[in-house]
Amino acid sequence: MPTPRPLGRRSRAGRLATYLLVLLAALGAPRLAPAQAPPAPADARDAANVFLDCGFRCDEEYLRTEISYVNWVRDRTVADVHLLVTTQPTGGSGTEFTLAFLGQRRFANLADTLRYVAAATNTADDTRRGLRRTIALGLVRYVARTDAASGLTIAGPARTTGGAAQAAPVNDPWNHWTFRLNANTNFNGEQNYESRYYFMSVSANRITEQWKFTLSANQSQNMSRFVFESENGSRNAFSSFRRELGLNNLVVRSLTSHWSAGMRSNLSSSTYYNQSANVSLIPAVEFNVFPYSQSTRRQLRIQYGIGGRSLSYRDTTIYGKIGETKPLQSGLVALDLRQPWGSTSFSIDAQQYLDDPKYYRWSSFANANVRLFKGFSLNFYGGYERLRDQIYLSGRGVSRDEILTRQRQLETGFSYWGGIGLSYTFGSIYNNIVNPRFGGSGGGGMMFF
């Protein structure tokens, strides 16, 4: 019986060489271009320049990789096509993407609008593939006018027997109702501190062209415990607790392309606002200067409502009340614009008690992202609230510890918040190339110290 020959250095070296050859062959293997993408034009300068104005809603690297027969540019002023993507939620808890293809320069007279609806059950990959297909369809009329048109192929759905295919009637056993459940918690701590937070919510929605019905309920609870050492060396503990409950309902009836009527009702409870129960019911009407069909691009809504509010307090208030019911009126003016130059929104919201007009509140909010000139953008947000309706403040006062841990709201006449930022980009206008090495094109996946 022959004796097996032991593996020596030469056989191990041979195996290693074989592995290296296989690895090099794999690395050196040519890559095939996607079958459906048309070849790049002979002169890349003839390709359509496209500016994608989508923000965080789109996977830009994926789109640049999959749609490689156009020049993706980062400056809208040099683009032949400004692709403006806006979104709004659908009745089924999904997202409707409105894609406005705005022709510029050599395509100045060509414009189109397409829509894509991503279902609530979509994965991120489902959504980005649906967007890619819709964008590719919208770009056809522009690519057809460039040298890349020679590589275009068009395929349609197979015809059914008897002529054109007919859309099958939709069988919706849920009758447009959608439901959502959500729960989360987080906690952290160390030797002298611990914190726990809980949140739960449930919602039910039914949205059609004529009716909008939303119902949501939520509860949050935040607990913290601090351990500290006093001047005499003893250790003391202090705990803070804050809980919020809410039940919100909205019913809206579409009247015309500009008018709608509805009713908003709310039930809430808050330790922070000294309220064991806050119940309000406010019927209202709303007028939109622009048709609601243009809501993803522009809105100017004017709303007015009149109703009532019933309040029950946890502690007797500074006015000696443990409960009261008051009539109130509310108003809202809101402007939202999303245009090629950028986006902006502004709103003013006000409420006033009719039986005692000196008790009121109003708030304003504004934000904008504006491209002032080539490569330079200004973005800001800010808000201001005037408070003259704090009839719910506790009469027992607030301790120092409650102030420091913000367990109760203090008497105040106003609140404000805001931020501002600038950005300037210069250099090559083209951004066709995608390099995912070391965590994407920005190299953000690694951190060096």
Order of strands in the sheet with most strands: 6-7-8-9-10-11-12-13-14-15-16-17
Mean pLDDT: 82
CATH architecture grouping of the largest domain = Beta Barrel
Using only CA atoms, what is the Rg? 30 Å
- Distance, first to last CA: 63 Å
- Biggest sheet overview: 12 strands, antiparallel
User: What is the CATH top level name of the largest domain?
Assistant: Mainly Beta
Into which percent range does the helicity of residues fall? 10-25%
Element order, helices and strands?
HEHEEEEHEEEEEEEEEEEHE
Q: Provide the low-confidence segments as ranges.
A: 1-10, 23-42, 442-449
Q: How large a portion of the residues is in β-strands, by DSSP E? A: over 45%
Structural class: mainly beta
Reported by name, the CATH topology of the largest domain is: Porin
- How many DSSP helices? 4
Walkthrough of the structure:
The chain has 449 residues and is mostly beta strands. The protein has 2 domains: 44-147, Rossmann fold, CATH 3.40.50; 177-424, Porin. It has 4 helices and 17 strands. The strands form 2 sheets. Strands 6-7-8-9-10-11-12-13-14-15-16-17 form a 12-stranded antiparallel beta sheet, with no helix packed on it. Helix 2 (60-66) links the parallel strand 1 (49-53) and strand 2 (71-73). The model is unreliable at 1-10, 23-42 and 442-449 (pLDDT under 50).
